[in-house]
Recover the amino acids of this structure.
């Protein structure tokens, strides 16, 4: 049993909690930190010796990765790209999860401060769009920041993502091309600039261009997860007699899968009764029955480009990209969840 395992056992906590407590993480309560520190003293465990042993060699970089929730399905693919570039360039990676913070802004700023205390050379922030309300604090940050899957509203930071408005428009257009006119939408919360505001904006652009019927009953909101999609679909089905929806666009694959399950539980079928299209092309989209038609985001490529840019900024600043959004290509993946409908004669 290693020394840190002995400390965890004596303190009655996990190894991860020991690490957080001895590194002054805000995720550990003062009482727990006190118990861990006392256990470490009793066992003569000094984490500083471990820090020295793993200190980056001269010339190596240390990059902090801030993510909204490590349990999200897309993170594995995103990190594949980040990790590949990190390995090729001998970059040390430090992860920080926003999931446990009370508010988005406090979480982001606390995470950035945590990363700076750890001495990182740069930071990648995933899945967040930053407004000018962050600018005052960002001006105090002493390391470069790159955004992936999000952006800065005033383009003050480099970002790597797809064009969510255009991609959502294409998803709705695909449904129209298959003969659907009354289309429901399961939106993410509008407080989420990317998955909520922009994807809904793209859908509504299609409504305007194709002159589709659209009322408040055509839209329901979910929390981006399976359960949120299930409940939002239940809401859309409750007014189906009035709307006559034959298809649904869900702003995330998780919500699309939840919607499909709800349709099944209500005695209906996908795509026979209602077609469903998702957004992300997560691995689960190819495992459902029927398989989910969806917009594919190149998560690994986005992670790679974000990390490449940050490494370049740090090692070759004269060759760095300009600030602003850098759009990567997306694809519409046709599978089995959308049925072509024809007008009755």
């Amino acid at each position: 049993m290693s020394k840190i395992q002995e400390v965890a056992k004596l303190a009655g906590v996990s190894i991860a909690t020991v690490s957080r407590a001895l590194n002054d993480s805000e995720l550990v309560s003062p009482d727990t930190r006190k118990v861990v520190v006392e256990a470490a003293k009793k066992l003569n465990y000094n984490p500083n010796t471990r820090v020295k042993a793993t200190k980056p060699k001269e010339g190596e970089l240390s990059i902090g990765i801030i993510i909204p929730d490590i349990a999200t399905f897309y993170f594995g693919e995103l990190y594949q790209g980040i990790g590949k570039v990190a390995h090729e360039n001998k970059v040390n990676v430090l992860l920080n999860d926003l999931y446990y913070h009370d508010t988005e802004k406090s979480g982001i700023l606390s995470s950035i401060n945590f990363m700076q205390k750890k001495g990182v050379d740069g930071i990648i922030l995933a899945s967040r769009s930053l407004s000018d309300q962050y600018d005052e604090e960002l001006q105090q940050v002493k390391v470069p920041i790159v955004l992936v899957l999000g952006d800065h509203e005033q383009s003050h930071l480099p970002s790597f993502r797809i064009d969510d408005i255009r991609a959502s428009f294409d998803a709705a257009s695909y449904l129209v091309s298959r003969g659907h006119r009354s289309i429901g939408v399961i939106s993410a919360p509008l407080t989420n600039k990317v998955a909520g505001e922009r994807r809904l904006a793209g859908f509504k652009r299609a409504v305007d261009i194709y002159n589709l019927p659209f009322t408040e009953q055509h839209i329901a909101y979910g929390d981006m997860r399976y359960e949120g999609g299930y409940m939002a679909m239940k809401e859309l089905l409750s007014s189906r007699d009035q709307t006559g929806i034959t298809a649904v666009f869900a702003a995330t694959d998780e919500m699309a899968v939840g919607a499909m399950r709800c349709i099944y539980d209500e005695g209906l079928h996908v795509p026979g009764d209602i077609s469903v299209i998702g957004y992300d092309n997560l691995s689960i989209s190819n495992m459902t029955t029927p398989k989910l038609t969806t917009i594919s985001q190149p998560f690994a490529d986005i992670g790679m480009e974000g990390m490449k840019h940050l490494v370049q900024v740090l090692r070759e600043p004269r060759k760095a990209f300009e600030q602003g959004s850098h759009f990567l290509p997306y694809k519409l993946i046709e599978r089995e969840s959308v049925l072509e409908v024809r007008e009755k004669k």
